[in-house]
Design goal:
75 residues, mainly alpha, 4 helices, globular
Length: 75
């Protein structure tokens, strides 16, 4: 994927994380986001965002980082 596609994945992951901050429990929020990404993102999308996290993931929010780590370790 091109760099603009990675930028879109980062933005989407952060938006999904932001939409799940109403729970008030960071672990539960991260699990919900990880579940969403696992269910609805294509394998190539998950692989690219996981690789981005492995390279530092600087632009990801803390919830998105945790969720992607959970997703990657589960699957």
């Amino acid at each position: 994927m091109a760099n603009h596609q990675l930028t879109s994945l980062i933005r989407m992951a952060n938006q999904i994380a932001a939409n799940n901050t109403h729970i008030g429990d960071e672990n539960a929020e991260a699990e919900m986001v990880a579940n969403h990404l696992s269910k609805f993102w294509a394998r190539s999308m998950k692989a690219q965002i996981s690789e981005y996290l492995n390279q530092g993931g600087d632009e990801l929010t803390p919830i998105a980082r945790k969720a992607i780590g959970l997703m990657a370790s589960a699957g």
